[in-house]
C-alpha cells in the first residue's frame, strides 16, 4: 500500500478521534510512546491520554492543511501534519504542527503568528 495513503488515513482517524473522544486515542500509543507537548515530555499511553484529556478545552476541530510522510528504516513511517485548531467559542483558529513516528514519538506545537 502507498505510504501517503496510509499516512492520510491514519491522520484522518487520529484527529477525528481527538476531536470526538480524546480518551479513544489510548490504543494508538504504547507504553514506550513519548509525547512532547509544548516542551513537556510525557511517556506512556496512560500518561499521554491523561495529558490530552486534561487540556483546558472540551471541544475542538482540527483542519488539516498538509500531511507529509516518509517511510522509516525501522518499517514504520514518519508523519508530519500541519493545520489549524478551532476551539469552541474562539473566533480565531490556532495554527499547529505535529510529527510522529507511528505514535512512538509525537511532538505537538502551537504555531503562534
Automatic annotation (TrEMBL):
<dbReference type="InterPro" id="IPR045875">
    <property type="entry name" value="NTF2"/>
</dbReference>
<dbReference type="GO" id="GO:0006606">
    <property type="term" value="P:protein import into nucleus"/>
</dbReference>
<dbReference type="InterPro" id="IPR002075">
    <property type="entry name" value="NTF2_dom"/>
</dbReference>
<dbReference type="InterPro" id="IPR018222">
    <property type="entry name" value="Nuclear_transport_factor_2_euk"/>
</dbReference>
<comment type="function">
    <text>Facilitates protein transport into the nucleus. Interacts with various nucleoporins and with Ran-GDP. Could be part of a multicomponent system of cytosolic factors that assemble at the pore complex during nuclear import.</text>
</comment>
<dbReference type="GO" id="GO:0051028">
    <property type="term" value="P:mRNA transport"/>
</dbReference>
<protein>
    <submittedName>
        <fullName>Nuclear transport factor 2-like isoform X2</fullName>
    </submittedName>
</protein>
<dbReference type="Pfam" id="PF02136">
    <property type="entry name" value="NTF2"/>
</dbReference>
<comment type="function">
    <text>Has a role in nuclear-cytoplasmic transport of proteins and mRNAs.</text>
</comment>
<keyword id="KW-0963">Cytoplasm</keyword>
<feature type="domain" description="NTF2">
    <location>
        <begin position="6"/>
        <end position="110"/>
    </location>
</feature>
<keyword id="KW-0653">Protein transport</keyword>
<dbReference type="InterPro" id="IPR032710">
    <property type="entry name" value="NTF2-like_dom_sf"/>
</dbReference>
<comment type="subunit">
    <text>Interacts with RAN1.</text>
</comment>
<dbReference type="GO" id="GO:0005635">
    <property type="term" value="C:nuclear envelope"/>
</dbReference>
<keyword id="KW-0539">Nucleus</keyword>
<dbReference type="GO" id="GO:0005737">
    <property type="term" value="C:cytoplasm"/>
</dbReference>
<keyword id="KW-0813">Transport</keyword>
Amino acid at each position: 500500500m502507498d505510504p501517503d495513503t496510509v499516512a492520510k488515513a491514519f491522520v484522518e482517524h487520529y484527529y477525528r478521534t481527538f476531536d470526538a473522544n480524546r480518551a479513544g486515542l489510548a490504543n494508538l500509543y504504547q507504553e514506550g510512546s513519548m509525547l512532547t507537548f509544548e516542551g513537556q515530555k510525557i511517556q506512556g499511553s496512560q500518561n499521554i491520554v491523561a495529558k490530552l484529556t486534561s487540556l483546558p478545552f472540551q471541544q475542538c476541530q482540527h483542519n488539516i492543511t498538509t500531511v507529509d510522510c516518509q517511510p522509516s528504516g525501522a518499517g514504520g513511517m514518519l508523519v508530519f501534519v500541519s493545520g489549524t485548531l478551532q476551539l469552541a467559542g474562539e473566533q480565531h483558529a490556532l495554527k499547529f504542527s505535529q510529527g510522529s513516528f507511528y505514535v512512538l514519538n509525537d511532538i505537538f506545537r502551537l504555531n503562534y503568528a
